[in-house]
Amino acid sequence: MTTRWLTPEEQRAWRAYVAASLLLEDTLDRQLQQDAGMPHLYYTILAYLSETPERRLRMTDLAEKLKITRSRLTYAVARLEKDGHVRREACKWDKRGTVAALTDEGMAVLERTAPGHVATVRATLFDHLTPEQVSQLEEICTAVERALQGDGSEAAPAPEGLPWLRRSSSSPPSPPSSSSPPSSSCGS
Q: What CATH number is given to the structural domain containing 52?
C-alpha cells in the first residue's frame, strides 16, 4: 500500500488543528486549576453528571460520553471522590456496575467555577469565530467524531478499539457487555 502523504494544504490544516487544540486544552486546564484546583477533565466529569437525572451516571456510560478509557475515568473519579465532589455507588440493577454521583459539594464547585470556565471558552475560541465558522466547527468535529466511532468506513477503528471499551491504553479490549440495559441511567 502506498502512503497517502498530506498535501501542503492538509499539512497546514493539521498543524493548525494540533497547535490550537493543545493551546486550548492548556488554557482551560490552567484556568480550572487556578479557579477550582482541578484539570479540565475533572470539571467535565462534574458537568456531565450535573446534566443527568438525579446527577448520577453509570461509570461505563460516563467513560463513553467523555471518550476516555474506563481506567482513566476510575482514577479521575477516585480523585474527585477524595475531594468530596463525587460519590461512587453500587448500581441497583447490575451488581457489577458502579455509578458516579455528583455530591452537593461537587455541584457547588461546578456552579462557582462555571462562569470563569465559560468566559475562558468564549475568550479563547468563540470570540474569534463568526457564526458561520461556529457552525462549520460543529460540522467538522461531528464528522470526525462519527468517523472515529465507526461510521462504516474502512478508516474507522473497530468498535472494541474505542477508548471506553478498553480498560487502559495498553490492555487488550474487553468485549462489550450484552447484559447492559439500554438506559444510561442506573437507578429508579
A: 1.10.10.10
